[in-house]
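User: Let's play a game. I give you a shape written as tokens, and you guess the letters that built it. Ready? Here's round one.
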């Protein structure tokens, strides 16, 4: 049995994460809003968009096209 891998796109706020989610949906990448695991030095307001890891190349391309810069992106 193979586990599903996800990517988390961490944004500065819930509003920014929602904008990111809509931006990605425009490129056919579906995701869900989630609170990311807290990292040292993270702002408590940080929110993330969780997507399937296989959609990460399309998501990164779309974010680059729209000049969207998240705090960080990592796989789970």
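Assistant: Ready! My guess for every position:
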């Amino acid at each position: 049995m193979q586990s599903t891998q996800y990517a988390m796109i961490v944004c500065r706020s819930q509003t920014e994460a929602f904008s990111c989610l809509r931006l990605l949906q425009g490129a056919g990448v579906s995701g869900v809003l989630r609170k990311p695991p807290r990292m040292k030095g993270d702002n408590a307001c940080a929110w993330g968009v969780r997507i399937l890891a296989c959609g990460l190349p399309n998501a990164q391309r779309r974010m680059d096209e729209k000049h969207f810069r998240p705090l960080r992106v990592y796989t789970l």
